[in-house]
Amino acid sequence: MRDWNWRRLRERHRLATAAPRPDAVFESRWARVDGVRLHWRATREDPPGTPVLLVHGMAVSHRYLMPLAARLAERYPVRALDMPGFGFSGDPGAPADVSALAKWIAMWLEAIGEGPVAVVGNSFGAQVATALAEEHPALVRSVVLVGPTMDPAYPTKLRQTWHWVRGLPYEDPGQLPVILRDLADAGLRRAWRTFDIALADRIDRRLPRVQAPVLITRGAKETVASQRWISELDRLLPQAETAVVPGAPHDANYTTPDELAALVIPFLERTARE
């Protein structure tokens, strides 16, 4: 069920749009990696424990991850990164494919001296998180895939877009200006090319090679990641855990962060201990 409490709606929007200003919990940080200046939001005072890295989806940024980040920050150090070319991070030139984005994250973690991390990816970010765990396993302690894409049953941009549009009525409407700002930052060309990159990447072929513990979630009102698709991914990785986020749409990290955090935190407690 969507939460239309206006105080909570305003708080989610405030969290999403605070950067680069510091607030009571988070601050913006920058580091230059392979010639590109990367931006992320980080907890100003880290709780003890494994850092949790949040990885955003296609054509967006750290912003829509911040409602979930705020819930996780009560228990863990949190890092919400803008991947190269998105949000406040610099332009790397041509759009990077999934493996290249994972490598950039790996270089960034090494540059700032962090890792292994628990990585939480939403949508296309789940594809990047899976590639990071597959190709740079020493840097990843556990993985959470929130509404992972791309279901090969919908092999075209048109079909993927249609399933995304069907779910929009269940999303927090306050997310729209956040996403439009992210799209303006990334640019239509990068967003369109990243769509091609996401479609070409096969998370179902990567997952069997992931050694870290994995939690796969979908929203109860999810229209992008179907239950059939989640079950297929679960069969590929028998040791994975799966869960349905009550009342949640595709962007559970923004619209239903409390419900998502209630599933993620126990998983992290079991799998992300130092």
TrEMBL record:
GO terms for molecular function: hydrolase activity. Residues 51-158 form the AB hydrolase-1 domain. PANTHER family: HYDROLASE, PUTATIVE (AFU_ORTHOLOGUE AFUA_2G14860)-RELATED (PTHR43798:SF33), MONOACYLGLYCEROL LIPASE (PTHR43798). It comes from the Bacteria. SUPFAM superfamilies: alpha/beta-Hydrolases. Pfam families: Abhydrolase_1. This is Alpha/beta fold hydrolase. Keywords: Hydrolase. The keyword Transcription does not apply. InterPro entries: AB_hydrolase_1, AB_hydrolase_fold, AB_hydrolase_sf.
